[in-house]
Amino acid sequence: MNGFLITHAPALLIMVPLIGAFVAPFVGRVSPKVRSAWIILIMTLTTLVALMLASDVFLHGTRIYVFGATSPGLTVPLDSGGIPIRIIFTIDAMSALMQVIAAVCGFAVLLYSISADRIHSGLESYYTLFLLMITGIMGMVSTGDFFNFFVFLEILSIASAGLIAYRIDGGLAVEAAIKYFVLSTIGAMAVLIAIGIYYGEYNALNIAMIASRMQFTLLDQVALVLIIAALAMKCGAVPLHFWTPDAYSMAPSSVTAMLVVASQASLYGLFRVVFTIYNLTLNAMTVGWIIIILGILSMVVGVTMAIPQKNVKRLMAYHAISQTGYMLLGVGVGLAVLGNQPLMESFGYIAMEGGIFHIINHAMYKGLLFLTAGAIFFRIGTYNLNRMGGLGHSMKYTMVFFIIGALAIAGIPPFNGYASKLMIYESVFAFNPVLAVIAMVVSILTLASFVKVFHSIFMGPRLPEFDTVQEAPMPMLVGMGILAAIVILFGLFPQAVVDTLIAPAAHALADQSGYIASVLGGA
After folding, report:
1. Burial (CB count <10 Å: 0-12, 13-18, 19+), residue 446
2. For residue 507, what are the contacts with CB-CB under 8 A and spacing of at least 6?
3. For 264-278, what is each residue's pLDDT tens digit?
4. Per-residue pLDDT reduced to its tens digit, 203-213
């Protein structure tokens, strides 16, 4: 049984949430308790499969899963043209890391959501879309086929748009969802055109096959520009970030926490294309600097737009944009260095490791912050900072979780944000000191912003209308507690995390030849 699960874990990672999504509406007709138990069971199984698969990948190397093959763990025989003809999942250490992020965050958020959203109607549709969202993320980070990447991207976009519009909120949530969906559709069309270019040039849709034949022609450069623009928009990078504040602020907080992970799945797609398909065939310094500039713009614009906000979720949305900049900066510097300055290879890998480490750290602390905002809204019914005050008297655990998330996002030791930011600072300083100084200043502004938010929400005398406010329900606290525990543990033992998870992921992402060989040369 265990061997069967290990062998078919890549397929189960998609099948379990997909089946759960389609059964959820029928189970919900039995009773709310049965529905909640079903959703928790599905998310628990998905998380266990993701952890089991990641353990296997980190211990034994890249996993190849061929759908419909007699031996799904091996690549299919190639025809005379050398083209893989089946749907292939290629799961290396980077893919496995992203799966773990999605599964762990999804599990914590679901526990939180069971309590936070219980008073709303239409929960069968809500949880169906939630599980489809998980399916889309898992598919995007697992597939080795570019067209199926597009398919899972569309599944994710449709599910996310439905969840953003879930509460309607006088039409404002629907407006945010329409904006997100329209921009996502435009981005998806750009990706589809790029896929058509690759298929027309190389007669292949498989990522490894395209990479092995890449010539970096003018058409390939056009495809790269389309993909960078589309996926940079999807991950909320400036100047393509304009959907992010509306979508993040209008969606339920549990959905917003998952939208962070969804954005990172698009970030993964961007990194996968640049490193695996193009790698050294492109002008690494030029493309590296494009990614660096996107990162710096995201950091600076995000934090400066966050400071004047009065809506706490909108403020956090702009900080999410800012934090995405750190990931782009780290990986962009890694690309520029590894492609052009072999003598600085160690700094290049440290920069990439810092950027990738920040992906998992950001998912945890930003998810935690959005959940604390949701807990506050759950009790007092507003996100307006001017209408809050003194909540630390009655929501002590929520306040502690907020402090943990705020210190982590500001890069204060001993929390996980400090560990990844320090790696980025050190490596980026060796590449260009000015970029490192900008990154540090952004962290200082982030800390100042969250000090203001903390004071507005939790400090001072309790307002009379909040005399009866109670702490958030236990399931919400458990969900926040899971993310808070990871924030603390990753901050206390960063080297163990880097050695075990991050370094293998960074080297797998940069190893184009290894990725190609694992698919085209057998497992």
Report:
1. buried
2. 93, 349
3. 999 999 999 998 998
4. 888 898 999 88
